[in-house]
Amino acid sequence: MARIRFVSSGVAAALAVVFAAGGVAAGKAAFDDSGSSSGGGAAVGGTKVDVITKATDSDFWQSMLAGSKQAGDDFGIDLGLFGPTSETDIEEQVSLVENSISRGADAIVLASNSSTALNGAVDRARNAGIKVITVDNAVTTEAEGFIGTDNVKAGEQAGVRMCELLTDKGQKNGKILHESSTSGQQVLVDRFNGFKSGLAAKCPDAEIIQTSVNDNDLNKAVSQVNDALTATPDLAGVFADNNTSGTGAAKAVAERDASDRVAVVAFDSDPAEIAGVRDGSIDAIIVQNPFFFGYQGVVEAAMAAGDSTPPVRLDPGAVVIDRSTVDEAQYEQLLNPPKTKG
């Protein structure tokens, strides 16, 4: 039976992006079949783990579910894959957690759509003896562990790249639209705060003129960016904080034939965003590793259910990819991971 041991956090950071998309267990956990463990890990086969993602209609979250499925297959974990249709459906997420409690899951992997609204459900699950690992968006109540990008740092990467793009265009003091998917998600707050910090480091006079919230609706995102281009003819950049926002910005910029004058930096890497990088309607994407979130989340959930102690916090990091690097072999699996629906 496979067991779990730990490697250093420095090695974890180096391994996460390189190996996780290929299905290799990276990050804090490495595996062997020796039947012994220096970290005291317990057998995980047969453990009942429910994975609840933010939405099932997104390539990003389908990649996370694929990672979870791979971990379940690799370790013989009894896995359930669930999620609401949309990231805005918090009530359905609460219901899914309650369903996991009723089913008697041993552990839950949760990508919460709210930092606070799921707290009560998480508390009820843990009071019932169910271990909870949160991914992507941490909750503000206790959980066994968290796996996710440091979104302040990733946002800073986006801000630094935006400044570089504006500088190249001779617009260091240019006007920028912040296109956001939802209000109140801490990951998005952190990304925006990081973006402002990274931008201000060398472009202190650049101006963020407004934040538009599209409710994770692609058509709304396209319309909002188009409206901004009309209202602000000298708009110099768009910061899009998720895949829907990034795809919407790319479509609007392409429709207006504005890619030469408007810089777009976006989070995530669904196929439409990758196409945008290739055709120039997106200048750079900040790429996370949702496959790793799912794989490592299931491993840590099974560890916790077996009374081992998973890492309290694990950050796989993020990578900036642009037109010059999008087709490099080293990023192929990161940009095109397996996907599955719950």
Q: List unreliable stretches of 5+ residues.
A: 1-42
CATH superfamily annotation of the largest domain: Response regulator
CATH architecture of the largest domain: 3-Layer(aba) Sandwich
Largest sheet: 6 strands, parallel
Gyration radius (Cα, Å) is 20 Å
- Cα(first) to Cα(last) distance is 27 Å
**Structural class based on helices, strands and sheet pairing:** alpha/beta
Question: How many separate domains?
Answer: 2
What is the count of β-strands?
A: 14
Features:
Rossmann fold, 6-stranded mixed beta sheet, alpha/beta, 342 residues
Report on the architecture of this protein.
The chain is α/β, with parallel strands linked by helices and 342 residues long. It has two domains: 3-148 and 290-316, 3-Layer(aba) Sandwich (Rossmann fold); 151-287, Response regulator (Rossmann fold, 3-Layer(aba) Sandwich). 42% of the residues lie in helices and 19% in strands. It has eleven helices and 14 strands. The strands form three sheets. A six-stranded parallel beta sheet has the order 4-3-5-6-7-13, sandwiched between helices. Strand 3, helix 2 and strand 4 (78-82) form a beta-alpha-beta unit. Helix 2 crosses helix 10 (290-305), helix 5 packs parallel to helix 6 and helix 7 packs across helix 8 (243-255). The two termini are 27 Å apart. 56% of the residues are buried.
